[in-house]
Amino acid sequence: MAKPRDNRAWFLVLPVVLLVAFSALIPVMTVVNYSVQDTFGNNQFFWNGTGWFRELLDPSTDLGGRFFDALWRTLLFSTLCLLIEIPLGIAVALVLPRRGWGVAAALVVLALPLLIPWNVVGTIWQVFARRDIGMLGAAVNGLGIDFNYAQVPLHAWITVVLMDVWHWTSLVVLLCYAGLRAIPDAYYQAARVDGAGAWAVFRAIQLPKMQRVLTIAVLLRFMDSFMIYTEPFVVTGGGPGNATTFLSIDLVKIALGQFDLGKAAAMSIVYNLIILSVCWVFFATTTRGQGEAGR
């Protein structure tokens, strides 16, 4: 006979759920309200309907061209970060010690970049990459390369990508390390009996067993890198020109710099929908693949 379920525990978390839903619902309703209105100032609004959305999704308009330019830059930045941080995180996790005092020391050192506030990370790299007093900038210029992230777009991109890799690769390492530690020793013992090499063990045992944590790592890193604002804004301010003006930076410029609340609200809604859609597609694809592989 099946044991009856006691659902009274839901009443204990219901107040928290209602509080979170309420605190999230009000900002969303405000943004949606602004996205369908326009204003001439003095807190006077008039109905604009879907006008901002039509203009935003039309690349031939100024707003649409600006939006799609920032979108491609943001997608490129997220892609570069994922292509570097995921393989690098896996490689570092594989060489970390499994036993002894070195485990705690390595994990503490890896966690240090994650504890630094985002604006401090931007300030660190703003100084670190300077050509006159920064260690990175001075070292690169000492090799005969005229490195100047404030004037050369390619150098600005290299700086912000390296900054993100330094800041967030540790998260991927920690997740992958947790996945590796969860693999039973019996798998490794069977691999040694079969005479499997390191590459065969990684391909047949470690990588498949890390798929779930890698899914989490990719989703977290995509969302973080796609929504990044503070670090590149502190380092480059979106420059030189608009070279590192990502969607988040452009959104703030429109909302606070130009005070175009309707345009900014429409952009923020589309921005959020893009993030949710990409994450849903990726998660659904990977979980479906894992389910078919487990059959």
Automatic annotation (TrEMBL):
Chain segments annotated as transmembrane: 12-36, 75-96, 103-128, 156-180, 213-230, 264-285
Listed Gene3D superfamilies: MetI-like (1.10.3720.10)
Domain ABC transmembrane type-1 positions: 71-282
Pfam families assigned: BPD_transp_1
Entry superkingdom: Bacteria
Keywords of this entry: Membrane, Transmembrane, Transmembrane helix, Transport
Protein name per Swiss-Prot or TrEMBL: Sugar ABC transporter permease
